[in-house]
Amino acid sequence: MSLLFSPFDLTGLQLPNRVVMAPMTRSRAETGVPDDQTAIYYAQRASAGLIITEGAPVSQQGNGYLHTPGIYTDEQGAGWAKVTQAVHKRGGRIFVQLWHVGRVSHTSLQPDGAAPVSASALRAEGALSYAIGPDGQPGQQPASIPRALATDEIAGITADFVAAAKRAMLAGFDGVEIHGANSYLFEQFLNANSNQRADRYGGSVENRLRFLMETIDAVAAEIGMNRTGVRISPFGRLSGMTGYDGEADTWLAVAEALEARQPAYVHLSDQLTIGGEAMPAGFPSQFCKTFTGTLIAAGGFTKETGEQALEDGALDLIAFGKPFIGNPDLVERMRNDWPINEAPREAFYGGTGSAGYTDFPTWREQVDTQQTNAAQKDK
Ligand SMILES: Cc1cc2nc3c(=O)[nH]c(=O)nc-3n(C[C@H](O)[C@H](O)[C@H](O)COP(=O)(O)O)c2cc1C
Predict the structure, then answer these.
(1) pLDDT above 90: residue 241
(2) 3-state SS, residue 107
(3) Which pLDDT value is given to residue 379?
(4) Ligand 1 site, residue 179, Cβ cutoff 6 A
(5) In angstroms, rounded to a whole number, what is the distance separating the alpha carbons of residues 109 and 143?
(6) Which three-class secondary structure state does DSSP give residue 319?
(7) How far apart are the CA of 24 and the centre of ligand 1, in A?
(8) Burial per residue of 95-113, b for 16 or more beta-carbon CB atoms within 10 angstroms, e otherwise
(9) Alpha-carbon distances of 144 from 16, 70, 108, 124, 240, rounded to whole Å
(10) H helix and E strand count, the chain
């Protein structure tokens, strides 16, 4: 019997299958507000057991890429409400990913052209922000040198996450995912190289994970721990993140701290298929010895490897990223062994209207088109 297509109780939210749509930035929100196309896009993918939206910046300071839909104004909240309504109408479930990029940003995106913020004033080497260049045109820009957050500013960022979570629940989301992965602000605090602080947010493992844990606790106090998920990328190497002594112990300590809290889930982001490195072999099984709650992983899964991973027992849910871009009915395609389309790389980020976004057909639509084309050819 397939586990991938079997139901799962996510702290009271009933998922009809264990296929999760991974968070994917699509850079389609011209004005930073989700629009009708956003609603269509997510509603088309409502047969996923759970949708996790693209990263939604919790503040202007938290934004590192043009055209990403935020969740810090009433207008953005109203845009997201249209998205959740459309998904729920199609019988789906949807969490929003709450995002602060930290140093992976550019002065042209920041309030008053200020420097982006981070744990320490260390540039994210090799990292690119999608921002306004010196020529006034949008394009990829090297991340600007950040300034270190003052100790008393950190609670303000936690408050931005709480406000965004509150706004998310008002907009009808089923929960939120705190983005602690992929080199962004929380990882900049977790990593002993990017965090050179001497206050209670730097130095020891306990100190480096304090900001993430305080934010999880504060968000959960507002919306409930059972509606609060968290994404991390153990041993992450994207956007200038590097290895350090005691890295394995850091991730074990994160697992312990999360076990003590029992969030709705922990979502492991393996970076091999997004330009980074794979997590050490067997890491999820090690992690789940300490963190016994719901565990999701993403990164290069197929139906077969996802099914196998569920059978092996470490993971409860499997997240698929890129396959969801070109296949709105990915669940049905995998369930029935129908062909899976590969979306062109150019479609991943940016663009307007439906092209490369909401115009990927379901398998049935694809077959209908093929039949119509064949019939016309025969005439
Ligand atoms: C176009 C694109 C945008 C992404 N944006 C995000 C994001 O906003 N937040 C995030 O945590 N991960 C993001 N990711 C990573 C995915 O969630 C996922 O972990 C990754 O694609 C690996 O899964 P896959 O091999 O099934 O694609 C993105 C990936 C892609 C391809």
Answers:
(1) yes
(2) helix
(3) 73
(4) yes
(5) 11
(6) strand
(7) 5
(8) bbbbbbbbbbbbbbbbeee
(9) 44, 21, 9, 8, 13
(10) 12, 14
Closest CA to 204 of 253, 146, 257: 253
Residues with catalytic roles? 184
Q: Determine whether the shortest distance from the Cβ of 22 to ligand 1 is under 6 A.
A: yes
Q: Domain boundaries in the chain?
A: 8-378
Among protein residues, the one with the nearest Cα to ligand 1's atom 13 is: 24
How many angstroms separate the alpha carbon of residue 349 from the centre of ligand 1? 11
Q: pLDDT tens, 110-129? A: 999 999 999 999 999 999 99
Residue 235: strand, helix, or coil = coil
Which residue among 27, 239, 274, 334 has the greatest number of ligand 1 atoms within 8 angstroms of its CB, and so is best to mutate? 274
* Selection from 303, 253, 327 nearest residue 5 by Cα: 303
**Contact in structure between 257 and 220 (CB atoms under 8 Å):** no
Share of the chain above pLDDT 90, in %: 95
Q: How far is the CA of 322 from the centre of ligand 1 (A)?
A: 7
CA 325 to CA 231: how far, in whole Å? 20
The most distant pair of C-alpha atoms in the chain lies apart, rounded to whole Å, by 77
The CATH number of the structural domain formed by 8-378 is 3.20.20.70
Is the distance from the beta carbon of residue 56 to the nearest atom of ligand 1 less than 6 Å? no
How far is it, in rounded angstroms, from Cα 235 to Cα 200? 23
Mean pLDDT of the chain: 97
CA distance linking residue 237 with residue 37, whole number of Å: 33
User: 3-state DSSP: the chain helix, strand, coil percent, rounded to 5?
Assistant: 40, 15, 45
pLDDT tens column, 32-55: 999 999 999 999 999 999 999 999
